[in-house]
């Protein structure tokens, strides 16, 4: 799609992200989990080899989900099926395209395949979502063709603090651009490390040109509603559901909380008797090398 | 004129923007009691399974049946059409049955097969050019006798109306083209005058 000399993802691909708004996208590792997610009201599922909490615990190289698992998940549900590819691993992305997944997440949760370059997302017939920690990172990914942005947060931590930091950075960055006079925009683009056309567009529109979702650390209905009130347009839940004591019930509650995110009475009701949430990690105590969010640039 | 947009899940914000640009007041609806005082309702695109779960949890099924019975127009796009149809296939699932059509879900394929097209619709009796964006779109496989086809693509109906219920398999709200929303606003205006 071309907007004022600015190339971004196709309208039909941004459109699918629009259809997911107000919804919950749930990480699943097999067909059985995918069915639980769909029955709970998930708007889409994300296929991956291991949920982030297990990747963190087990270590080793985390790759694209096995092809057979992705096919099983596609057979099991009618909602969109997304899958993760490693940052820069355009061949994993080509395989996911051949499988007909509905969205590719070029994800920092998997071990990066390229330390310098992300995938050229314009080269694909299916859309991409990418993580971001701030406005500059979001605009770089959109400039590469991402049709949806999500906060990175700190995946597998069960701790919402990083997702909050990243959402505030993106939303605050957008707000700041709307206040700048035209002569300051080029310097701002340089500081952000973002394409000037996108910086101008955002300054004028007061929003990103693609939907802005939240991921990374959401474990409770309250976490989901917090991100929605901070400006997220939909929610990704990774380990938060299938690492809890009652996944189906928690999944349903997070779906309700994402729709009724401004209604505290509903939030109180769905937060009752959920069983145990996933155990959390104090992210400020994680060593730099153990952070997933610093992968990619 | 106040028109609701069912805001449980999906692209409700884009429908609200299109309605406002047509001069209507758009109201987000998340609970059945918020339907009171509305002249019409849009059921947006989104995931129909998600929409149905949230509708059932909040008692929207009887509320929408009553809204329809009171003569208030309803416009469903994509998932909204699936929710309003008489029958749904692949897979079979519950639907409200407010328009006599049979619909097949995801009938063109997955996102890779999503597409855009230009066409012509008969709106208020006049041929009108329209932009159409199809996203994991359903196909209307059967039209009941009381249903009027308003637009076709490659010989298949993509937009239809029965009485006060308007449906489209595509997403006019993703374009800057307001023709379809204007048509719906006109339906709502006429129904309000008749009531």
| Overall form of chain A | globular
Determine the structural class of chain B based on helices, strands and strand pairing. alpha/beta
Helix content of chain A: 40-55%
Strand order of the largest sheet of chain B: 2-1-3-4-12-11-10
- Gyration radius of chain B, rounded: 15 Å
Low-confidence parts of chain A, pLDDT < 50 over ≥5 residues? none
Contiguous runs where pLDDT drops below 50 for at least 5 residues of chain B: none
How far do the termini of chain B sit from each other?
A: 13 Å
Biggest chain contact: A-B, 34 and 37 residues
- End-to-end Cα distance of chain A, whole Å, is 24 Å
Share of helix of chain B, binned: 25-40%
Number of strands of chain A: 10
Residues in β-strands, percent of chain A: 5-15%
Rg value of chain A = 18 Å
Provide the succession of SSEs of chain A.
EEHEHEHHEHEEHEHHHEHEHHH
Q: Tell me about the largest β-sheet of chain B.
A: 7 strands, mixed
Alpha plus pi helix count of chain B = 5
Task: Report mean pLDDT of chain A, rounded to a whole number.
Answer: 95
Count of strand segments of chain B:
12
Structural class of chain A: alpha/beta
What would the principal axes of the Cα set say about the shape of chain B?
Answer: globular
């Amino acid at each position: 799609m071309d907007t004022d000399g600015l190339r971004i993802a196709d309208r039909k691909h941004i459109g699918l992200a629009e259809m997911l708004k107000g919804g919950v996208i749930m990480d699943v590792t097999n067909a059985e989990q995918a069915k639980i997610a769909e029955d709970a009201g998930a708007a889409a599922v994300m296929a991956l080899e291991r949920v982030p909490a297990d990747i963190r615990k087990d270590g080793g190289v985390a790759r694209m989900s096995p092809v057979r698992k992705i096919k099983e998940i596609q057979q099991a549900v009618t909602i969109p099926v997304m899958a993760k590819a490693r940052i820069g691993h355009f061949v994993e992305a080509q395989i996911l395209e051949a499988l007909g997944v509905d969205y590719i997440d070029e994800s920092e949760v998997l071990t990066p395949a390229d330390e310098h370059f992300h995938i050229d997302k314009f080269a694909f017939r299916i859309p991409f979502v990418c993580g971001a920690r701030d406005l500059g990172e979001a605009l770089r990914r959109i400039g590469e063709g991402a049709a949806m942005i999500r906060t990175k947060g700190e995946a597998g931590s069960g701790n919402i603090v990083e997702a909050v930091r990243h959402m505030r950075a993106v939303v605050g960055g957008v707000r700041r651009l709307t206040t700048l006079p035209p002569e300051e925009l080029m310097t701002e683009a340089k500081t952000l490390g973002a394409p000037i056309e996108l910086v101008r567009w955002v300054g004028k529109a007061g929003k990103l040109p693609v939907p802005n979702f939240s991921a990374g650390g959401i474990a409770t209905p309250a976490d989901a509603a917090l991100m929605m009130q901070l400006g997220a347009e939909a929610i990704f839940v990774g380990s938060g559901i299938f690492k809890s004591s009652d996944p189906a019930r928690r999944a349903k509650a997070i779906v309700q909380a994402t729709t009724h995110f401004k209604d505290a009475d509903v939030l109180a009701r769905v937060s009752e008797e959920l069983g145990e949430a996933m155990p959390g990690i104090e992210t400020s105590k994680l060593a730099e090398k153990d952070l997933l969010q610093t992968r990619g640039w | 004129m106040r028109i609701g947009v069912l805001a449980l899940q999906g692209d409700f914000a884009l429908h609200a923007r299109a309605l406002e640009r047509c001069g209507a007041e758009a109201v987000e609806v998340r609970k059945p009691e918020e339907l009171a005082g509305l002249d019409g309702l849009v059921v947006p695109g989104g995931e129909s399974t998600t929409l149905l779960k949230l509708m059932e949890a909040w008692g929207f099924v009887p509320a929408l049946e009553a809204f329809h019975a009171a003569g208030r127009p309803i416009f469903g796009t994509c998932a909204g059409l699936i929710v309003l149809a008489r029958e749904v296939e692949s897979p079979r699932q519950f639907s409200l049955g407010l328009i006599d059509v049979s619909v097949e879900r995801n009938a063109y394929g997955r996102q890779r097969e999503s597409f855009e097209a230009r066409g012509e619709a008969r709106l208020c009796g006049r041929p009108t050019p329209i932009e159409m964006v199809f996203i994991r779109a359903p196909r209307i496989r059967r039209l009941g006798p009381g249903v009027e086809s308003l637009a076709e693509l490659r010989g298949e109906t993509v937009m239809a109306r029965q009485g006060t219920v308007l449906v489209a398999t595509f997403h006019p709200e993703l374009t800057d083209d307001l023709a379809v929303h204007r048509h719906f606003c006109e339906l709502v205006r006429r129904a309000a005058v008749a009531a």
